[in-house]
Write a structure and sequence with these properties.
The chain has about 150 residues and is of the alpha+beta class. It is built from 5 helices and 8 strands. Strands 1-4-8-7-6-5-2-3 form an 8-stranded antiparallel beta sheet. Strand 5 and strand 6 form a beta hairpin. It starts with a helix and ends in a 13-residue tail after the last strand.
Length: about 150
């Protein structure tokens, strides 16, 4: 190959690598709205179930609170809607299972979601039908959000 062909090849490879790095960085950032509310669309949420994980892990008792009141569901979803998330370097954070809470979102139709969170600002969102990698990460909350409202539920 000529010198010019090598330079073109190197530039093409460098552009591909840079594009991959940029895409990887962009995928680290998400929001609750993108991960939960947009896939639900206009579907009405029929029930929210909150579970305090620490009670379940320590005693095996399932301390749960079901919410079916639409005004309360709307208030909770509005509070979560503006959460900005950044991918955590630790994909499997076991503290979420031990000292946090779970919120199960049951819509009238479509996928249901499980949101695990703790007061340290760590969040994990699972979708029952999508195996996309964004639903297998643990996220850190990057804006101010107070999770203490969940303590009032129990």
């Amino acid at each position: 190959m000529s010198d010019k062909a090598w330079k073109v090849s190197i530039i093409v490879v460098a552009c591909i690598v840079i594009a991959g790095i940029v895409m990887s960085e962009l995928q680290k950032w998400n929001s609750f709205k993108q991960l939960v509310l947009e896939p639900l669309g206009e579907t009405k949420i029929s029930k929210l179930v909150f579970i305090e994980n620490s009670d379940f892990v320590v005693s095996g008792d399932l301390n749960l609170k079901e919410i079916t009141d639409q005004a309360t569901i709307h208030e909770i979803m509005s509070a979560f809607e503006n959460i900005r998330l950044k991918k955590n370097v630790n994909p499997w954070n076991h503290t979420l299972y031990e000292d946090g809470y779970r919120m199960m979102i049951h819509p009238e139709r479509g996928p249901y979601f499980t949101v695990m969170f703790n007061d340290k600002g760590e969040v994990r969102i699972d979708n029952n039908i999508s195996h996309h990698k964004k639903y297998s990460w643990t996220y850190d909350v990057t804006n101010s959000f107070d999770f203490s409202f969940t303590e009032n539920l129990f």
